[in-house]
Amino acid sequence: MITFSFPIILGNFLQSLYLVIDAVWVGKLLGYESLAAISAVFPVLFFLISLLIGMSVATNILVGQSYGAKNKNILIKVLQNSFFTVVFLSLGLSIIGVLSGKSILNLINTPESIMPDAHRYLTIIILGFLFRALYNWFGGTLRGLGDSKTPLIILVISIVLNIILTPLLIIGIGPFPRLGIAGSALGTVLAFFFSISVGYFILIKRNSLFDFIKKKTTLDFKLIKKIFRVGIPVTFSMVIRSVSWMAIIALVNKFGPSLTAAYGIGVRIDMFAFMPALSISIAVSSMSAQNIGAKKFERVAKTLKCAVKLSLGISFLIFVLVNLFPGAIASIFTRDSSVLSNTVGYLRIISFAYLLFSFIFSLQGVIRGAGHTGYLMFFSVISMLMVRIPAAYFLAEHTTLERFGIWTAILLSAFVAMMLNFLYYRSGLWHKKAPLVYTDKYT
After folding, report:
1. Whole-prediction pTM value?
2. In which domain, by residue range, is 394 found?
3. Which end of the chain is more exposed for a tag (fewer CB within 10 A), N or C?
4. Tens of pLDDT along 317-339?
5. Same domain, 225 and 350
């Protein structure tokens, strides 16, 4: 499990590093209000990205099946149709996002003091949304072909470029213009553009088969329908998370830009804290799916036990570090005393969720491996939409907890999610009827 999980952990670490780079450069070079601006935008971007995550998952599954079947014609069709599906969807989302960006920011109560920077940052990122979407597509395609190294190479290129370009464009050095917060957004967009360009040339140099753009394009709506059928359940789960996230940031914004910035820092720290358990969960899904297919359910139980022990051990170490050095960790992002204080308060409460998610992610790995993603979506509806959001608003606005009530509600919803997933696992329903995600052959 450790061997299988390590490349996934590294890839997720690099993905999260993208977000941290922006936050560090903006916080250090422009101040906490600019940091609050990109923090307010982050849930909106997560929502837009979540709409396309399902497509990359579907691509991964369909490419893997056609490649494994050594069916060259179907593989080309999958590559072409999934590629153009992602392109058309991302362009459509970009148009909608640019036209409605300011309205969305108003909807989530973005403070007036940071509205201009937030809107400017959001607009530029959305205009380059196609490049981010294509990166996800490349990742799904390459993993479907059994290649997990090339996506890491592409991501490393993106991060190096982001590290170099972002500060140059923020403060203006040499021939680079001084763009402020717009420079942070533009640096990210350019990094994605150059990295996917390199990724595409790596792909076609390795095998001319993958230079599918030059081949005669045939849009197959039957295949496109299958892509959506595989990807939509995953997308809905991501949308539920993003809606919950935007509801929470709307509540956080009511307490002012200092708490918004602190929440943005806290979420970025959470991403690193959750990363090992989440990566192990992906490994559990693959291992469980194989054992369920072989009807070796006793091995699924052993896999789960191993995953929980490994996840819990890593999460406990992170929990201890975060509680011993919360101020030092937060100071990586900002020097403002009020933001530091709010971040420490956030971490003191939310760090307990790191332990809960060791169980949640491992249990979800088994259920997802059985193909029961609909139940996971239902559990998300209960824990996030029916528990987290109402509890956060009640505790923050109708008790003396105020902002601490928001963090308490998040912790409460994590406990509910853990219990729902545990009870479903214990029921045994996940292996009594365990359909594969994609079983019918494409002809």
Report:
1. 0.68
2. 255-433
3. C
4. 999 999 999 999 999 888 889 99
5. no
